[in-house]
Q: What sequence folds into this?
């Protein structure tokens, strides 16, 4: 135990840096994921079939293990953050679109028909009716995407993307038990804390 | 003779992948101020016919005119904002208050806020709901009959000349339905609008309609005043319909 304390007191700045790096990776990924998912979701409103195809395509991509996807992209985008972010964004599309699109189509058809029958334009139906009535599904999609990004970003340390995974993998390579504990507790803890925050917010909407 | 409020010229509609016509080469015209009820069993094409008026469905062939204007040439959104539309499941927006629901079309037309507010109160009074009590409530806090009153008020908001009602009272209990029917007759009498109401209830059709349109398998069997239809049913289907209604009446006679 005293060894652990000693490690923490000596390396807290490394840990903090890794944590911030990890968060940065998550935030950048999330911002781009949401932008792309928003565009694709609007496209799906205009063509339901396009939406179904997109979900299918991203579900195939999602089933490929992250390490394999990283490896496939290294020749193109090299080692580092960019490759990690591309893969994370692609994974998130599945989680986000599946929830967003199915949420939009779960709205009572009678309500949609009334909205259209009264003369709302398609984007008005989306904005004034479909979106407010499916915000729970949107929230769930974002929650899943964030938690999954935190987890997979840890693995991205393998390709020099930085973050908490660096500590963990360093520890594994040098058989340093303190690093292993610090890395895994922090990445798991981060996921749990963020998930808890989402749960708390969810109760309010 | 004046220009008819609604005119169908040889209108047909077939749905994708279906071998038969949902509406089969139908022509008729409706004068302004009439209350037309469209009666038929499910699948006869009555709802399809109604939804072609506000172009929720596009006809496959033929033309539809409203006050002499070919609807296929109009902007569909503008067209719909001019037509009141009421459906069975009410279609009230569950996330909006009653006030916001009734204000939907005025808002789409960017009415002044004060004018909209005033109009909403007027409309709620018109359908006999107290504005003080109901404005701030949500649809789920209302009974089925009250929800349908709100649906009516919402459809009437910008004084449409034509009202389309798709089995508006199909989901409310018998006593509430009678009340709503009376209400609708009163509204129609006071407003001089053209009403088109779809129903599968023969009593409702004959009670409400100044003219009744009887439909079967996509075609109009008869389109006439209730009295003329009862006196001279045009075909076997219509005659059978009237007979069945009479049979039902007999059920009560024994208990008087």
A:
């Amino acid at each position: 135990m005293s060894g652990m304390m000693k490690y923490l007191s000596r390396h807290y700045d490394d840990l903090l840096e890794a944590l911030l790096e990890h968060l940065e990776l998550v935030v950048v990924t999330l911002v781009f994921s949401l932008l792309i998912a928003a565009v694709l979701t609007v496209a799906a409103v205009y063509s339901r079939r396009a939406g179904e195809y997109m979900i299918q395509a991203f579900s195939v991509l999602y089933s490929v293990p992250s390490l394999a996807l990283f490896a496939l992209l290294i020749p193109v985008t090299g080692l580092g953050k960019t490759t990690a972010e591309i893969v994370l964004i692609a994974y998130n599309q599945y989680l986000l679109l599946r929830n967003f699109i199915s949420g939009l189509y779960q709205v009572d058809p009678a309500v949609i028909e009334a909205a259209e029958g009264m003369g709302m334009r398609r984007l008005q139906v989306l904005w004034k009716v479909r979106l407010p009535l499916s915000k729970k599904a949107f929230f769930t999609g974002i929650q899943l995407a964030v938690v999954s990004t935190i987890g997979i970003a840890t693995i991205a340390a393998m390709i020099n993307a930085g973050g908490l995974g660096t500590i963990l993998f360093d520890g594994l390579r040098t058989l340093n038990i303190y690093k292993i504990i610090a890395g895994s507790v922090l990445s798991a803890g981060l996921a749990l804390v963020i998930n808890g925050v989402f749960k708390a917010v969810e109760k309010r909407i | 003779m004046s220009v008819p409020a609604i005119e169908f010229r040889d209108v047909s509609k077939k749905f994708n992948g279906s071998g038969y016509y949902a509406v089969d080469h139908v022509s008729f015209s409706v004068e302004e101020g009439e209350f037309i009820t469209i009666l038929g069993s499910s699948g006869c094409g009555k709802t399809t016919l109604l939804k072609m008026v506000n172009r929720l469905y596009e006809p496959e062939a033929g033309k539809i005119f409203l006050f002499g204007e070919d609807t296929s040439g109009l902007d569909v959104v503008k067209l719909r904002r001019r037509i009141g539309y009421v459906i069975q499941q009410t279609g009230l927006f569950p996330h909006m208050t009653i006030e916001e629901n009734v204000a939907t079309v005025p808002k789409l037309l960017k009415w002044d806020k004060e004018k909209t507010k005033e109009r909403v109160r007027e409309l709620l009074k018109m359908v006999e709901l107290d504005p003080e009590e109901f404005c701030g409530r949500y649809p789920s806090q209302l009974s089925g009959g009250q929800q349908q009153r709100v649906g009516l008020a919402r459809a009437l908001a910008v004084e449409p000349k034509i009202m389309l009602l798709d089995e508006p009272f199909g989901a409310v209990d018998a006593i509430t339905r009678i009340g709503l029917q009376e209400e609708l007759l009163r509204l129609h009498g006071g407003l001089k609008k053209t009403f088109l109401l779809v129903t599968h209830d023969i009593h409702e059709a004959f009670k409400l309609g100044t003219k009744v349109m009887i439909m079967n398998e996509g075609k109009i069997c008869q389109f006439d005043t209730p009295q003329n239809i009862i006196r001279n049913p045009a075909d076997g289907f219509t005659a059978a319909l009237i007979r069945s209604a009479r049979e039902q009446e007999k059920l009560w006679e024994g208990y008087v």
Observations:
- Chain A touches chain B through 17 residues (CB under 8 Å).
- Chain A has a mean pLDDT of 92.
